[in-house]
């Protein structure tokens, strides 16, 4: 029952196909030698925003930053530090620093990227980042995604083009006639933020016409009865008024999906950056669930991603609650934090006041909505450090600017987003053009200067190569030197595997079987597998171990009344909050 296929590893190889770099990649040499790169650590000598700086040594920079952070910790408490970073580069060493310093407020830019997509898919499927097996698909429907121009992964354009050559139909649903839409078989213009209405109307047609996969729905889903009644209210006639997509088109698209195997439906930032994003993604995710197109060849797959394992930090005492409400006010918030809430706390001092900010690869002023508010918030901080290659708008407000490294100048361990486990090592190919140190070395130097250690004495008294070596051995059982010795310094393990929910598992001691529901529960009451005949199989990584049209997690969530909106257990459509008004009657799309 578990399919194994080599096709994923062969993406881009046939007919001499290769990767396609985005403009940033093509400009990488120019960015390395950019004359505007920050040349040395800078100390502000004028008012914030005055542009007056003096160069200081790296030793001075480390001592001054460490001294100011020590002073702030002693005066206001360690939780008064807010640290935010890019989400893929040397994250673990920064997390270590924040935890050993005592701050819970480490954030990454994921929270302004694709976290709504992640939560929507996770609530339905139990995996927050499924990937499309596009080359094996016969029908590809993309909501608000432009992968042929916004090259998320370098081989993706070749994969999509190859699928088209093999006969797949490409349908792009987007308000904008993007580069991908221009290459598609069909472009479906849609009113911005109404993708969920379109998905529910398509589900309406599939359920009404009895086109869903009855065996799959019966065996592997929960909440279908509630969902089927729910979508009766979302007809194509209704959706036409909401989305501007003709009802005939909606019906035809639904019928095409239902009559084509295999297919991929996927959604990214287009639907994911509106106020109704999570429920929209749940509605889109329900379509392949209805038709049984999950984790099979040519459908949405659940990647088996492996990478370096972060070392365990044993703290003397638990960290305080976060300032942004993650885990309290926002129980479903992503681990990357909530930038807007952190920004607002800088202004209000609630639930407590932040006093220091460290920004690594993050232009907070321009990346977070409401630029003027962001500037005012940063001005409330007593001390700001910006680590960047250029003097960004955020760096202009900093007290200390640390030169950022270029990716040609540093190490990085990269767990690739592929459908089988792979990990790559980026290695320095040139010395630092500005004669500086990479970000991870700066963080470790700060930790040593502050004397940060956990209760077992773990701190920063090692080289970063030793740090990576330990992460690799814990994560994939390989040393750094062994990884370096592989072709291209790339490790890969196994092949793309399908239908992983059918894997057999062993029941732990003390389990009970709910014969009616067909599930096996641990003695703590947690669902551990699905009874399939005489076998116990893994199922999906949801609480029920099945794909969920109806989310009990959302229904039972305990949240403050002011954030209860959007917690409907069914993917109810609500119009986006950022629509046109009488004063401003047009949409701005780009």
């Amino acid at each position: 029952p578990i399919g194994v296929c080599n096709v994923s590893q062969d993406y881009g190889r046939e007919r001499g196909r290769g990767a396609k770099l985005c403009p940033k990649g093509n400009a990488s040499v120019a960015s390395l030698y950019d004359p505007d790169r920050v040349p040395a650590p800078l100390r502000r000598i004028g008012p914030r925003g005055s542009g007056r700086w003096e160069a200081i040594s790296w030793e001075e920079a480390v001592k001054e930053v460490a001294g100011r952070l020590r002073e702030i910790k002693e005066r206001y408490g360690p939780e008064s530090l807010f640290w935010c970073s890019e989400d893929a580069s040397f994250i673990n060493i920064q997390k270590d620093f924040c935890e050993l310093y005592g701050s819970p407020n480490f954030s990454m830019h994921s929270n302004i990227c694709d976290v709504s997509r992640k939560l929507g898919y996770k609530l339905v499927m139990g995996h927050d980042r499924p990937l499309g097996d596009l080359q094996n698909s016969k029908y590809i429907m993309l909501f608000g995604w432009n992968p042929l121009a916004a090259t998320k992964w370098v081989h993706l354009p070749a994969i999509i083009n190859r699928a088209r050559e093999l006969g797949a139909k490409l349908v792009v649903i987007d308000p904008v006639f993007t580069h991908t839409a221009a290459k598609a078989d069909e472009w479906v213009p849609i009113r911005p933020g109404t993708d969920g209405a379109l998905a529910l109307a398509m589900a309406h047609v599939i359920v009404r016409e009895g086109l869903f996969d009855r065996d799959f729905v019966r065996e592997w889903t929960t909440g279908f009865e509630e969902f089927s009644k729910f979508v009766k209210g979302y007809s194509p006639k209704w959706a036409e008024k909401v989305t501007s997509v003709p009802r005939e088109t909606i019906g035809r698209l639904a019928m095409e999906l239902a009559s084509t195997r295999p297919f991929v439906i996927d959604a990214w930032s287009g639907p994911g950056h509106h106020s109704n994003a999570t429920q929209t993604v749940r509605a889109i995710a329900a379509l392949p669930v209805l038709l049984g197109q999950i984790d099979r060849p040519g459908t949405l797959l659940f990647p088996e991603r492996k990478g370096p394992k972060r070392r365990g930090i044993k703290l003397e005492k638990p960290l305080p609650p976060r300032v942004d409400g993650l885990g309290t006010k926002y129980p479903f918030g992503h681990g990357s934090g909530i930038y807007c809430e952190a920004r607002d706390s800088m202004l209000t001092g609630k639930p407590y006041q932040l006093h220091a900010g460290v920004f690594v690869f993050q232009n907070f002023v321009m990346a977070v909505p409401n630029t003027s508010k962001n500037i005012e918030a940063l001005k409330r901080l007593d001390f700001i450090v910006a680590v960047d290659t250029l003097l960004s708008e955020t760096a202009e407000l900093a007290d200390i600017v640390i030169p950022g490294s270029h990716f040609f100048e540093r190490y990085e361990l990269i767990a690739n987003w592929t459908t089988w486990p792979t990990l790559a090592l980026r290695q320095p190919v040139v010395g630092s053009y500005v004669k500086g140190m990479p970000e991870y070395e700066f963080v470790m130097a700060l930790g040593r200067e502050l004397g940060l250690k956990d209760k077992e004495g773990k701190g920063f008294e090692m080289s970063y190569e030793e740090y990576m070596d330990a992460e690799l051995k814990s994560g994939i059982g390989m040393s750094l030197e062994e990884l370096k010795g592989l072709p291209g310094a790339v490790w890969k393990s196994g092949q793309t595997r399908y239908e992983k929910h059918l894997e057999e598992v062993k029941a732990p001691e003390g389990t009970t079987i709910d014969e009616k529901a067909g599930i096996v529960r641990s003695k703590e009451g947690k669902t551990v597998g699905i009874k399939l005949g005489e076998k116990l199989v893994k199922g999906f990584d949801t609480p029920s171990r099945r794909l969920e049209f109806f989310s009990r997690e959302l229904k039972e969530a305990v949240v403050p009344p002011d954030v209860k909106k959007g917690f409907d257990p069914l993917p109810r459509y609500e119009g986006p909050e950022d629509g046109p008004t009488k004063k401003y009657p047009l949409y701005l799309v780009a």
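Confidence is low (pLDDT under 50) at residues 1-16. The longest helix spans residues 58-76.
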